[in-house]
Fold:
Amino acid sequence: MSHALRTLATGVFSVQRSVTVLSLLRPVSAVKIRGQQRSRSDGVKDRETQPFDESLLEFLVCPLSKKPLRYDERSNELINEELGIAYPIIDGIPNMIPQDARMIHKSKATENPSES
Amino acid sequence: MAASVRTLALRALSDSIRNIHHVSRCRIKHLCCRAAITGCRGYSDSTEGRSTHFGFQTVPEEEKAEKVYKVFENVAKKYDVMNDAMSLGIHRLWKDTLLHTMNPQPGLRLLDTAGGTGDISFRFLEYTRSMYDRQQRLRAKSHQTPSWQDIADHYVSDKAGSPQSRAVVCDINKEMLKVGKQRAEKAGITTGLSWVVGDAEELPFDDDQFDIYTIAFGIRNVTHIEQALQEALRVLKPGGRFMCLEFSKVTNPLLTRLYDAYSFQMIPVLGEVIAGDWKSYQYLVESIRKFPDQETFKEMIEDAGFFCVQYFNLTGGIVAIHSGFKL
Structure:
């Protein structure tokens, strides 16, 4: 009898625990999904409402070599082939600081050494 | 001289295309050469461990840019509010005066360096658009009653807005540009305005591209002012105008005392209360004192290669507009 009661109790507890765990999980996963959705929609929104203005390329050049740049849509960067560096574009604003540029072929260095 | 050093740098680059260190070394030598030639006015004369001023402190040159970046990163969100509070709204009049002095015609291209939150660019676009509208109205008045075809053509051409007046805001600080971009979206200004993160000493723009170059309340934060002036000369078209709006030396001695008292007592306090940042506004006030006066700055601009350099004092010399032409 007591054994049965004990198993009942543990069973109820385990159910309760699993219920609480589940209830905790659900909002977390919902938030995560919503967060992902938001970031995804923000990403889409970024690309739609804040696209990079290609007309800038008329006069935008690499600050180091003063040569024209190539716009790479996939990685959303402005690439200087000659020097092998890529300037990131964040929120549609190109970042033309040499220190923040990424070197393309040598993967060991992620940032250019500082200039001055 | 500059050209040969640059070609040297490029040749070294093509020799070892993966060795970016080479370029940086060449460019640092290039910087030192140029600074030596111009005599580094206002900076410390020590050749090794070159230092410069950050407000009243002396810091190594490499650090100044970083410190300035941090200052503006901290104040970006409250920048416009603080400007209004500190200058009691007078900064708007100063910027409006800059625009009126500039008197831009529609269809020009502006580079707003150290443009931050975009005050000058917004005013520029508004000014050229209203001027364009006024010109259209005058043109319409002088015409006889237009035919329906004329009216239809007018509407079609008007959709493009003012004939491609373009403003590019360039700032070294992403945060300031972000704030500026949000402001632009709120104000509904979308066409003709671009945002670029760039260094005033190394502008990411091609030669002879801009009709007007402005730098409002930004040039005192630049580590090498001569270099920024050289870059301004480079990117301006021949006939282009350089305009600088900056705090300067007050001419009236009584006003000097009041101004100093206000600067050193009130402004950091306001900074602490409104933006929660005493140090940044202490830097602001000190950097104003460290900046060369009207005549010295005029000479620096002339040395860079500008012609017909003149300055206008505003509010008794608290602020001065310097203007020069590339011919």
User: Anything to note?
Assistant: The longest strand of chain A covers residues 85-90.
